[in-house]
Design brief:
Blueprint (H helix, E strand, L loop, with lengths): L3 H6 L7 H17 L6 E6 L6 H16 L11 E5 L2 H11 L10 E2 L1 H11 L5 E5 L19 H6 L4 E6 L13 H8 L3 E6 L10 H11 L16 E4 L3 H15 L2 E5 L13 E4 L2 E4 L20 E2 L1 H4 L4 E8 L3 E3 L6 E3 L19 H20 L2 E9 L2 H17 L1
Parallel strand pairs: 1-5, 1-6, 2-3, 2-4, 4-5, 7-15, 8-11, 8-12, 12-15
Antiparallel strand pairs: 9-10, 13-14
Helix pairs in contact: 2-3, 8-11
């Protein structure tokens, strides 16, 4: 029986007309450039929740079916699906284990594939990359990557790449990308760009999506609107423990509901348990998941706090988000500010040789933190619950929410 994450990405999930047209465009592009002497790249852009992964899952399934058909132009091609996210890779390999024509070994992390191909002096035909904004853009010796850029390394090994890219989901300096950076890197290659713009994940009114985009974009704190709760459960909590209890209740009712948090609380990969404490609320951060089941689908993780690293790319039914110490209200009470001194995720902000200017690094830290908030706010299909650590922001949001409830 398929779990919920696998169902979401199954190639048998019926695509929308926009998604189906995009899949056909991608297949035409692959066939047209399969034998070019220089690599070609098909780029799919779109915000979180617009169905990019669904498109890639169906596309790769179709390519592999064609590769197994002896009369197809794709016959006997060697193709790989890549994602630089261990939790999401588990989902794709679970899919491969359930469907004919798909092999688990066709789903790889980029570093593993690059190192193996280089060691054997081999190449491949088509690479499909989900979450390409998570590709390394500098060496990472700790993870055995000694090249300068994942994407450049892969372009040396294949004929065609199909990638999805969302600049708002860049989360670490070692995977630091912007759309301009990507365009400059791809300038020498044949390329085609397409965009997905319809929000599929959240059953939310466009006004709530706009509120989130302003919160994490220009950092403007727009007024809360009654329309936020049309077909969607949006709530502000002044008490983190009460938010946890509400999430536990929703998890019992519909499943796949979790507490998640931004940075701002101690967390190190030392094998120990590190707790987030907010008043009566006290839960440990998520632990490294050594199982084949994604973190969000392990029942016991209802008693943990998820991070961006365990939740990115996944649908939750309900998400309770703790806006940690770096997320504050501005002095005038109108905008969000990011206090970079409160960031505790040191792994995300390791030194880059090409980013030595302190103002550039500071701006990048602010942007990456806002990106993470955007991703976490858009995890919930049915509902989003918020709690803010900063007393001024908590009071502002609670007052706005109280005003909203009085209107109703």
């Amino acid at each position: 029986m398929q779990n919920q994450a696998t169902k979401k990405l199954s190639p048998f999930k019926r695509p929308t007309s926009q998604q189906a047209a995009l899949i056909d465009q991608a297949k035409d592009f692959v066939r047209a450039h399969l034998h070019d002497t220089t690599p070609a790249v098909f780029v799919i852009t779109g915000d979180a929740g617009t169905g990019k992964s669904v498109v890639l899952s169906q596309l790769f399934y179709d390519l592999q079916q064609a590769a197994n058909h002896r009369t197809s132009v794709m016959a006997n091609t060697q193709n790989y699906f890549m994602v630089n996210h261990p939790e999401l890779l588990k989902v794709y390999r679970n899919i491969a284990g359930e469907l004919p024509g798909l092999l688990k070994k066709s789903f790889q992390r980029p570093t593993s594939l690059i190192n193996r191909m280089n060691k054997r002096h081999e190449t491949f035909d088509v690479g499909v990359i989900d979450e390409s904004h998570l590709l390394l853009s500098q060496p990472d010796h700790y993870n055995n990557y000694y090249g300068h850029n994942h994407l450049l390394s892969l372009l040396k090994l294949c004929h065609v790449l199909v990638i999805v890219f969302d600049a708002h989901q860049v989360l670490r300096l070692k995977t630091y990308w912007t759309q301009d950076r990507l365009k400059r890197l791809l300038a020498p290659y044949t390329q085609k760009w397409v965009h997905l713009d319809h929000q599929f994940r959240m059953q939310a009114d466009d006004s709530l999506i706009d509120w989130i985009d302003h919160f994490t974009g220009d950092r403007t704190l727009l007024p809360l609107q009654a329309s936020f709760r049309h077909h969607y459960d949006f709530r502000i909590f002044p008490d983190a423990e009460k938010m946890r209890q509400a999430i536990v209740s929703q998890n019992k009712r519909v499943g796949l509901s979790r507490i998640v948090s931004t940075t701002g609380y101690l967390s190190t990969l030392d094998g120990g348990r590190h707790f987030i404490t907010e008043g009566d609320f006290r839960l440990p951060w998520d632990q490294y998941n050594y199982t084949a089941t994604p973190w969000a689908e392990i029942p016991e993780t209802i008693n943990e706090v998820g991070s961006i690293y365990t939740c990115q790319g996944f649908d939750l039914n309900y998400v309770g988000l703790i806006l940690g110490p770096p997320v504050k209200l501005s002095a005038d009470g109108q905008k969000i500010t990011i206090d970079t001194s409160k960031i505790t995720d040191s792994e995300s902000f390791k030194y880059r040789a090409d980013m030595v200017d302190s103002q550039t690094v500071l701006a990048a830290k602010v942007q990456l933190t806002l990106n993470a908030i955007n991703v976490l706010m858009k995890r919930g299909v049915m509902g989003l619950y918020l709690f803010a650590h900063d007393p001024a922001l908590r009071q502002k949001l609670s007052q706005e929410y109280g005003r909203l409830n009085q209107q109703n």
